[in-house]
Amino acid sequence: MTEPAPGVAAAIEGELRLLDPVVRASADQLSALLHPDFREIGTSGRLWERDSIIAMLTDPGAPRPVTLTASRMRGDRLAPDLVHLTFDTESRGLRSHRSSLWRLTGHGWLLYFHQATPFIDDPFAEF
Questions:
Q1: Tens of pLDDT along 29-63?
Q2: Residue 27 — φ and ψ, nearest 5°?
Q3: Which domains are delineated in the chain?
């Protein structure tokens, strides 16, 4: 298997960091990975922006983020400054298809957009 292109490798590394509950509970670490114009469509369908997702994940009264297990992660460099990742996650029996766009900035590769769609069974799982 060949190594991913540098931008794809950086996006995968960033995405894996964002799956870590320690990173997800740290406003500083989240801020370092999320683009200033970050937007997300969560598994619930809720729309999030950078400040609201950081506040929710780091709220001391909120449940602590759980570990998400990723599988089938792959990436494509769409432009010199844009990488698209797709992957699946599982946590506590909830499985989601995920799609992320990472943009190259003066501060490195930052997550610009993310969408998660829950699924129960996927007849196309072996793509």
A1: 999 999 999 999 998 899 999 999 999 999 988 87
A2: -60, -40
A3: 6-119 (3.10.450.50)
